[in-house]
Design a protein that fits this description.
It contains 9 helices and no strands. The chain is elongated and about 55 Å long.
Length: 195
C-alpha cells in the first residue's frame, strides 16, 4: 500500500517558519540551506514541496495575507464583540499591528519588483488586502447610515497606507508604540467616519 502524500500538510507546517525566515533574513540573503536549517529539514525536502526559493517566497507572501485574514475573520465572527467589523479590525491592529514582523516579507518583496512574478504576486496580495478592507468600510458605512464621503476604495488605500507607515515607523524607530496605536486607532477611525 503506498504511503499517503503529506505534501500539503508539510507545506502548511513549514510555511510559518519560511515566512519568519524571509522576514528576518530577507529574500536575497536567505539561502535554501539556511531555510532548511531553520525548518529542521533537508534542502531536498524543501525542493520536494516547492520548485525553488522563489516559490517558497511567493508562498510566504500568501501566508502573510492568509494569516492576517484568519485573525481578522475571527474578530468578525466574535459574537460578543462590539462595533462594526472595520472598527474591530482597526482596534485590534492599533494594539497588535506588526507584532510578528511578517510585514517584512512584503517589504522584502518590494526589493524584488524587477522580477515580474514577484511584482505580480505583490500586486495581487495588496489588491486582496485592499478589497477586504474596502468591503469592511462599505459594511461599516451601511451599518452607520453613512451615505456620502470619500470613495471607499480611496479610504481602503489610505488605511493600508497607515499600516505601512506604522510598520516603517516601527522599523526605523520613528514612531513609539503609543504613536503607532494612535495612528491606527485615531486616524483610522477618522477615515472610517469621514462624511
Amino acid at each position: 500500500m503506498p504511503r499517503p502524500n503529506r505534501s500539503a500538510e508539510k507545506r502548511e507546517e513549514l510555511l510559518p517558519i519560511l515566512a519568519e525566515a524571509f522576514a528576518k533574513v530577507g529574500y536575497r540573503r536567505a539561502t535554501t540551506a539556511e531555510l532548511a536549517r531553520r525548518c529542521g529539514v533537508q534542502e531536498t525536502t524543501l525542493y520536494r514541496l516547492w520548485a525553488d526559493k522563489k516559490a517558497m517566497f511567493l508562498a510566504s507572501i500568501d501566508y502573510v495575507y492568509e494569516r492576517s485574514l484568519s485573525i481578522w475573520d475571527a474578530l468578525l465572527e466574535a459574537g460578543d464583540a462590539t462595533g462594526t467589523g472595520a472598527e474591530r479590525i482597526l482596534a485590534h491592529e492599533a494594539t497588535h499591528h506588526g507584532e510578528f514582523g511578517l510585514y517584512r516579507v512584503l517589504f522584502t518583496g518590494l526589493d524584488e519588483v524587477d522580477d515580474d512574478e514577484v511584482r505580480g504576486h505583490l500586486r495581487a496580495t495588496y489588491r486582496r488586502f485592499h478589497r477586504y478592507i474596502r468591503d469592511r468600510i462599505v459594511e461599516h458605512r451601511a451599518a452607520r447610515g453613512i451615505r456620502t464621503g470619500v470613495d471607499p476604495d480611496a479610504v481602503a488605500w489610505a488605511i493600508l497606507g497607515l499600516g505601512t507607515i506604522s510598520s516603517i515607523g516601527r522599523e526605523v524607530g520613528l514612531l513609539s508604540s503609543a504613536a503607532r496605536r494612535n495612528l491606527l486607532s485615531e486616524v483610522g477611525r477618522t477615515l472610517l467616519e469621514e462624511p
